[in-house]
Amino acid sequence: MDGAGNITFWGYSPSLCLTKYVDNQSNDQPIRLLLLGSGDIRHVLHTLAFTTSPIHIYMLESQLEVYARHLLFLQLVFTSIDQIGLQEKCEHYLELFANLHINTHTEQYLKEAATQLIQHVTNINGQFQLASNVTIDVSLLKYKEKDFLEGIFQFWRAPPAKQPFPAELAWDGRVRQYLGARYDTRRNAFDWDLHMKLAERGFKRLNAQEYGDWREKGLAFHLNRQDYTQPNRTLASAHVFQSTDGTKQARRGYWGDILTGPFVAHGLEPIDNDDPQMQSKANDKFVKTATDVSEYNVLKLIDQVQLQNNQIKIIFLPLNSIADLCTASTQRYQNLQFDLIYVGCGLTHYLNEQGEHFSSSIMSRGSTLLLELPTFLLDLKQDQLEQLEKRYDELAKTAKCIPRDNEEVKANVIKIYKYDQS
Hints:
422 residues, alpha/beta, two-stranded antiparallel sheet, Dynein assembly factor 3, axonemal
């Protein structure tokens, strides 16, 4: 298994307000967005924070563990400030989002949230309200997918004696397997990846202490000198292994990224220029670290979301339903077109598989296609990145999408295209 693992717990691009790239906005109809393989809710959070129009966001991922985390973070964000204060929300979010271990207070929140989420996903009509203006719709999921989600939430609140998650052992096993003979000099390997890969590709403010602690033990964010002693069960997932005799066995562990880290999503750049200190430098290095920027951005986004009163609906699509969606093979997908489609770098093969159907069936006139570049997939070399970027252009062309000005996106992490029906 490579450094990225086989499950995407966080994406490889900074959060974006996606409606910024939607040209054909109407006050009469809700904006419709489709997110394929985003890995987390960073784009959803950023988009909702700065969108005042009615909006419908459809989400499609490859694993139900990712859906479970989406639901957890959405519930956290939209919990009333009277129940959970802004700073506490931010700390819960960042810990659960990124840290292999969390503090006891956050663990207690996770157990309580899991109980509520079980009630939500087993709701007979498949829809529930997180706020008066926020509807979550899981009605399109298959029964077995809802059952699996319920099982995940049950695991989150299970006593460790009954369903253990030895997070530290799981992490160390992955690191040893990945580094091999370099394990004994792993700090040197971490420094090389930080300075010669992450920094060279545009991530300048991540420092050696932050990155080294995450690579060593899965601890990305140190917030308010907390003691992180409890395993973060939201980062557990199952992976099927095949033995030499052909038998298959599923094993629960940590099978996500151990190489890039969760810092890109919220820690690459401040979302605004309101605080000059965020860009201040000393000895040509940023004073504010990726942790500082992540906390600053998440606080801002959660606070801004509370101020919106537009109608919001977030719809979860069944796993592997892209073919049904593009061919409108079922009644529920007919006449469903999107003003913007975002595709994470792990699911760009969907464009190749669906070809012209990808655009003609589900893209509205003049809609936007955003493709996440694998810039921060560190197992890829520079020449591979350049080849993949050219491949993206070919895939977009197959879907009748033409390149659009990309200068507004920093750090070369997104390619922007426009659907051309001519």
